Every structure is written in C-alpha cells, then in structure tokens.
Predict the structure.
Amino acid sequence: MRNGNIMSVAAITKDEILEILQEVKDPEIPAVSVIEMGMVREVIVSDTQVKIVITPTYSGCPAMGWIHNEIKKVLESEGISNLIIKTRLSPAWTTDWMSDETKLKLKESGIAPPQNKTYEFESSDLFNIIKVPMAIICPFCDSDDTKIISEFGSTACKSLHYCNSCLQGFDHFKCH
Amino acid sequence: MSIDATKKALFNFAIKHADDRLILGHRLAEWCSTAPILEEDIAMSNIALDLLGQSVLFLKYAAELENSNRTEDDLAYLRTEKEFRNALLCEQNTDDFAYAIARQFFFDVYDYFLMEALSKSTDEQIRGIAEKSVKEAKYHLRHSSEWMLRLGDGTEESHKRIAEAVEFLWMYTGELCETDADDELLKSEGIIPDLSGLKAKWYESVSQLLAKATLEVPSIDLFMQSGGRKGYHTENLGHILSDMQYLRRLYPDAKW
C-alpha cells in the first residue's frame, strides 16, 4: 500500500493507475507489462470507482483470466476496491499497438518482435492468403538467413524459427 | 422486427458459430500427443485453443443476449445433442491424420471468408470476435493448405489417403455455407453482411487448392448431408458430448 494508507478512489489519478499496472506482466512473456502490450485500452477514474477496459490479445490466450485477476489483485493491494474491469473486443488487439521500446524488450529477451505490418484484407485469392510471410530476423545475431520451423510455437502468440547463421532456434511474436 | 426477435436471431447466430468451434476444437484436441510429429502436435493443439477461445467469446455473448442465469459454461456443458447447432463436418471422427487435415482445410477456408465478412458486422461483439478470428483463421488456413499440398502431391500412400478423405468428407461440406432464417433476419436488420456469396468463394478456393495438390475436384452439386444447424446430428456428436460433458454433469459445482 502506498505510504501505508488506503487511498480513496478519488485520491488516485489515471497516471498512477497506469504506473501500478506496469507491475502486471504477461505470464508467458515476463519481459513486458500489460500496458506495454497495449492491452489496457482505457482507464476511467471517477469519484466512486475505477473502470479499466482491456482488450484480449488472442481468442484462446490462457493467460487472459490470470491477467484479469492480477490487475484486480495489484489494484486492490493499493487500496482500490471499487474496481470494474471490462473486456472490449472491438477494435481487436493488434501487435501494431506495441511500441518500438516494447519490441526492443522482446528482442532483448530472445523473442523476435512482430516485424511485418499486420493483417489487412489484401486479397480473396487463396494462394495469396496462404503465402508464407518474409523471413524473420534472428533476435540473437540479426541475420535474415532464417527458416520457419512451425507457425505454432510454445504459446498461442509465438511461432518457431531457426537461424542458419548462428544455429539458434528462436521464438517470434506473431503479427496479429 | 421486434427487438426480441432480433436478439433471438443473434443468440442463434452466436450459438451455431460457437458450436462449430467448440466441437471442431474438441476433435483437434484429440490429436494432442498423437499427431505424427511434435510440431504438428503443437500446431493442432494451438488451433484447438484458438477455436475454443473463439467459442467462449461467442458463448459469452449468447449468454449475455439470453439474459438468463445461464453462463457460457452452462451453454457448453449442459445442452443436449439436439440443442447443438454445429455443422456435421466439425463432429466427424477420425484417427487418420489425412482425414483430420481435410476436415480442417474445408472448415478453414469457410472460416476465413466468414470471419472476413463478419468483421464488417455492425454489431460490436460479432465484429470484435471476427476481427480477431480472421487473423487466427489465416494461420489455420495456411497450415491446413500446406498439408493438403504436401499429402496430395506427396507419396502414393499419402495421395491415396488424402483423396479418400476428400471424397468421404465432401458430403458434409455443403452445409457450411448454407444460410438460414436467422442470417436473413440479421442481414435485413443491417447487422451482418450478405453471406450468400460465401459458397462460391469457398468452392473456388477449395477447387484451386485441390487441383494444385493433384487431387480430383468433386462437383459442388453432389448430394450433401445437412441437419447439424437444426440439431440433427450424426452419431459422432453424442460420443463427443458424453466425453466432454461427463465431468461437469457428474460434479456440477466442481471447481479447479
């Protein structure tokens, strides 16, 4: 609890809440917080309550329930009890909401950040839709001589690649 | 049209798309630890997870529309066979990898174009689910298309197995792009776009890929099985439900 006091809702600002939420990390990618991931879409502080709007990253992301509880836990430990957490689906979360700084953090933790521009409805031609995206740059040696091992990796958000230059396998945060 | 009728149509719409994903996701999850290679094991489980997640979103929305005490879990675990609205293709059982891939490919093509269309829905929840799902569907489609090509244009044995799978499953594909009274109502209310063009898009893409995979392209006018959308299922669904719902029905209030 901040200064050992229970803060009334009115006493806390939006910026303070955003700062507190930096403590909530994605359990599958502990390098980045829910704020850095771009999952927190809105924080509304009124006299009587705090409302937080989050947008899920992937439909089947098993971490969503955990993140929801963690946000609640962290804010409650700061004395904010009148809290509403709402889920908003549209606009859908996209990796474009990650800042360059966040992408760098991913790279530093050995995960190639999303590097292609995200999805647009480019074509209804099947062969265009299933075209394999360009080679992912290795987060360890920056080589683009890499190959894809599997588009489905250790978690819903990652694909698995191999670097022909430094002979390392690595994860890539998929573009969504 | 009254609000109640629109709500009811939206509820039915959410349920049928939830059920496709719940049942096919369950079928895919059966490959966890039994797929031919480790990467494939992970891929199939990942796709199952995506479909299950999408199903949860649709079921949550259905529960919200219904505004009763039923939750998404009640809708998944406490409905009977006849209340399920999934397409028959999704429930088809197999322990042959080629059949699992063909089943997935037929669904993925449909799913991709459906979700692309629904991302233009004026209903915020439907649009939100579709905007997310279409990106996931693209990965799924790439995965199953690559396998179709690899198996069709692979060895004599793989060609034979995938050709048999296509031939057997074909009669379950007609139902996917059928539209019903709920779709019509939602279209007339401007909530979802016209979905009548899906069938042609589906057939064009499927034909192109089958041809490239050196497989015969069946006619779209062959006899097609139908009934899943009305609650008339093959015997497969009962087996899935007894498996999936057993624990929840035996220990109704069990918690992790």
About this structure: Chain B has a mean pLDDT of 96. DSSP finds ten helices and no strands in chain B.
